[in-house]
Design a protein that fits this description.
Blueprint: E1 3-6, H1 25-35, E2 37-41, H2 45-51, E3 56-62, H3 66-73, E4 79-83, H4 85-92, E5 100-105, H5 112-116, E6 121-125, H6 131-143, E7 148-151, H7 161-167, E8 176-178, H8 184-190, E9 194-198, E10 205-206, H9 207-212, E11 218-222, H10 231-236, E12 239-242, H11 254-265
Parallel strand pairs: 1-4, 3-4, 6-7, 6-11, 7-8, 9-11, 9-12, 10-12
Antiparallel strand pairs: 2-5, 3-5
Length: 268
């Protein structure tokens, strides 16, 4: 059974170090990778992580949400650190208003080939660095039928707290892994996918035209904020696709563009 532990300060238990300095993004990226953990935030996200088979090593909870946390954990033998808003904020550095934070064991990522084997629609994120965008893309991937998401080595971590929160836990629902880059182009093509690069180019075709005759297996290549896809990615693509714009706007945010593209091809 979970063990409820009342806390008064960060010094109460060394395991609380998992929750310290959450607002320092660079530090947290290193600490979480080194410790093999990620943080699931909120009483909607935690059950989804548990349902995906991920296991917590501890939970930090606001006192008034303790019954809901214990209910979500079930019979798991997990320490649950409990305190009021002020003490939790002194530990994490921000207002923990979503009820709970859980330090979760980071799962082993699958081999890319295993995700490609039975997929029809995948999203490939090349160096998308904003965690908010990554989380929003996963939410669209779940809602609009993508079978998997592949991320390049320099892409933001889908399991970073902000990504998980923005995705509403769909990072646990959509299969994903990191893919070697640029060698990943060949891996995707050899699996039978047509690479469709979302980019501004003179020879790009309209998304609606592409969707009308889209092949059975499509990999949507989405580029980093600002600069978009690399020249190599555009050169390796089988098709360059653009979304028709109005109002003098030349392009959409990468998360919005992913959602539009997935919606367009979902009924092919």
């Amino acid at each position: 059974m979970p063990e409820a532990i009342r806390i008064e300060s960060l010094a109460d238990d060394p395991r609380l170090a998992d929750y310290a300095n959450l607002t320092d993004v660079a530090l947290r990226r290193k600490l979480e990778t080194d410790r093999g953990l990620y943080l699931a935030e909120g009483l909607k996200v935690l059950p989804r992580a548990l349902a995906a088979g991920h296991e917590p090593r501890s939970v930090l909870a606001l006192e008034r949400f303790l019954p809901e946390v214990l209910d979500a954990l079930g019979e798991r033998d997990v320490p649950v650190f409990v305190g009021g808003p002020a003490i939790l904020e002194s530990i994490t550095g921000y207002d923990v208003h979503r009820g709970a934070l859980a330090a979760m064991h980071r799962p082993v990522l699958p081999d890319p080939a295993s995700l490609l084997a039975d997929a029809r629609t995948i999203v490939v994120l090349e160096d998308v660095v904003e965690h908010t965008n990554v989380g929003a893309i996963f939410r669209s991937a779940a809602a609009l039928g993508a079978d998997a998401v592949l991320v390049t080595p320099r892409c933001a971590d889908p399991l970073y707290r902000r990504s998980v929160k923005v995705s509403m836990g769909t990072v646990f629902q959509v299969p994903w892994t990191r893919i070697p880059w640029p060698d990943g182009y060949r891996l995707i093509k050899d699996a039978g996918f047509r690479l469709a690069a979302l980019a501004l180019a003179d020879d790009a075709i309209e998304l609606d035209d592409f969707a009308r005759s889209a092949p059975g297996r499509v990999a949507l290549l989405m580029g980093t904020e600002g600069d978009g896809l690399s020249r190599r990615a555009v050169a390796e693509a089988d098709t360059i696709v653009r979304i028709d714009m109005a109002g003098g706007v030349d392009s959409l945010n990468v998360a919005a563009a992913t959602a539009v593209a997935l919606h367009a091809i979902r009924r092919r």
